[in-house]
Amino acid sequence: MLNFSTLLPPGHQILAANEYESVLVVLSYLIASAAGYTALAMADWVTNSRSRRGSELAKLIGAIALGGGIWSMHFLAMLSFKIGIHVHYAPWQTLASLLIAIAVSYTVMHLIGRESLTAPQYLLAALAAGLGIATMHYTGMLAMQSVAVQLYDPLLVVVSVMIASLASLGALLLAFRLRGRTGIRTFWLRLLGSLALGFAIVSMHFTGMAALTLAVPIGFEPDGLAEVNQHLELGMGIALGTLFIIMVGLLAAWAGERFHAQRLRLERVSTTLDQITLHDPLTHLLNGGSFIQTVDRAIGQARTGEQFALLMLDIDHFKRINDSLGHALGDELLIQMAQRIRAVLDNDLPLARYAGDEFSLLLPLGQRGDSQPLAMRLLEQLRPPFELAGQRIAMTFSLGIAHYPQDGANAGQLLRSAGLAVGHCKRSGRNRSQRFTTELQRDADDLLSLEMDLRHALSQGGLHVAYQPIVDPAGAPVALEALVRWQHPVLGPLSPERFVRVAEETGLIADLDGWVMRQACADLAQLHREGHAALRVSVNCSALNLSDRLLPQAIARTLQAEDLPASALILEVTENALMHSLNVAVEVLNEIRTLGVRVSIDDFGSGYSSLAYLSRLPVDSLKVDRAFVRTIPKQSNDMAIAAAIIAMAHKLGLNVVAEGVETVEQRQFLQANDCNFMQGYLFGRPMPLPHLRTWLQQSAIASVPA
Ligand code: C2E
Ligand code: CA
Ligand code: CA
């Protein structure tokens, strides 16, 4: 201990004072502990805050609670010092000490908010905080003005700074340890920690006070009541105010914690939701929507020059599996497929069941990669038969490939390009892979503009029907084939083969065929009224319309509207079409025949003709494909086939129409083989109704016996 008597200013004596107002001492300790608790709780909020603003707010509230707490603890402790002197506190210095306390606390809160601290950083931070608290303490002491002169023992001052630093170090360590933890254990740890912290702060203060010796002028008489009236009230006031601040801080910390817990719960829920909304429940692969997002993200993060391949894999004739084996086995096939595809890929490649029976995946190609090897491996992997309910079923696939950036700048465009490539595979016989090309795009564009023009023509009366006579062996007309015509405003007359395909690919075919049928029936009714009462009309029907169960009703309505007997109408359906759509088509055709409408198989012999199959089809007649007629009499093979078809059809009780008869030799050959009816340029080309009328009159004159 320093001997202050040597340092005494002249005319001064040492004031013996070591009494404290115990209520204020206890209060100051409680406040210091409460402030410590708030700061520790606030530390959690600082680290949990994801927004900058949130963490700044938490730091500020924490700093005010902690700084205000330490400061008022210190102030209260000073007030509790019973020295019997009238004391005046210089306002600016008092305020400065408060601001210092808050600033130091803010720094501490800021440090706690960091990821981690190294050991030297801990020590430095603790030392800085200790020095800060000490500065606050001694600034506050200097604010105290009275007759007394303050003398300090430097050793004890140093000890007080060390205690403050150690307390800060303890607080920092504790704060880092308890960060991000919840639960009752953490609560107790935090409480114990803050009580210890409070004790450390108070110890620091009283060590600082012990360093102080007051010197008063010789002969000064202490006033025993000096503190009692002024200090106790003031002290209580400050204590209450500070407690209020601390309470607010605690409440804020509690709310912050609740908010954080709530957010964690929400995040868990949203992860589960993500799992559900981002994945296909059947195969657990990504679904279409999330695949698009994933691809766009990958492209967005790609380095310059980096390329990708988007592969789209489509099962050929998947509908047949569903139709014949049922949807459960269809699903099973999809699951097995997903597993096989996964097995070929690196695990983290985005793979999706994009839609129905369509799988998509994204392959990074680096700077100049090739997608072909993977495409081959995929098709190879899918080649062995699949085991479905004990049956081994081999499937084929169509694979479309689009490269980024050449074939599309984003997921949407790449998918469209790959889809066009898949479409091309399907049209050219399936079971193949195809890279996107600009021709495919041009075809698609043409298709789109043709579709729009066709739509327009359908609604604005731009289509016409031409009629080609079908004659009996004597050359007398028995029926007319209705053939649609379209004079395109820019492209001129278009072949029906071309725009019928457009209508089939764009879903317009039902409207188109419906329109032709209504027009043909109206024209036929008119011809009947003009005296050609025995004529029938033969109308082409796209196979796609045969899956429409409402077709029979629509036909019945059309006939009724024109007051035509059902026997006046023949429906021409291509054979290939019947092979594909099976059950539903057969049902629909049966219903149509029940009405009394006849059904004819068009282009017979051009597809996979199956006699056994033919016998089961609900048809009345067949039209031998033009190809067999054209080569008569040059190709003896074709002639033999034509003759055989006619003979076989007769055995099955069907009538036979030969199409494309252009020469007299052809006519004679067909007559010799008992062909029932003929159609071709030899008799008449397809012609508009007015021409047909003239033709009918001329043929009537020609057939009148001389
Ligand atoms: P298709 O049903 O086989 O029609 C017969 C086609 O052969 C017609 O061609 C006709 O002009 C042509 N043709 C008739 N006689 C001869 C001949 O002696 N020699 C040659 N070389 N050709 C002859 P078009 O009118 O171009 O029709 C082509 C195809 O378009 C039709 O083939 C049919 O599949 C389809 N089509 C026509 N109109 C319609 C329709 O209203 N609906 C549907 N779905 N398809 C139609
Ligand atoms: Ca036809
Ligand atoms: Ca035909």
Automatic annotation (TrEMBL):
Annotated ranges, domain MHYT:
20-215
**What Pfam family does this protein match (any one)?**
EAL
- Stored InterPro entries: Cyclic-di-GMP_PDE-like, EAL_dom, EAL_sf, GGDEF_dom, MHYT_dom, Nucleotide_cyclase, Rev_trsase/Diguanyl_cyclase
Is Transmembrane given among the entry's keywords? yes
Q: Where is the EAL domain?
A: 447-700
Top-level taxon of origin = Bacteria
Location of the GGDEF domain: 306-438
Q: Has the keyword Secreted been applied to this entry?
A: no
Keywords from the UniProt entry: Membrane, Transmembrane, Transmembrane helix
Transmembrane stretches in the record are: 20-45, 57-77, 89-109, 121-143, 155-176, 188-214, 234-255
Matching entries from PANTHER family are given as: CYCLIC DI-GMP PHOSPHODIESTERASE PDED-RELATED (PTHR33121:SF79), CYCLIC DI-GMP PHOSPHODIESTERASE PDEF (PTHR33121)
This chain's protein is named EAL domain-containing protein
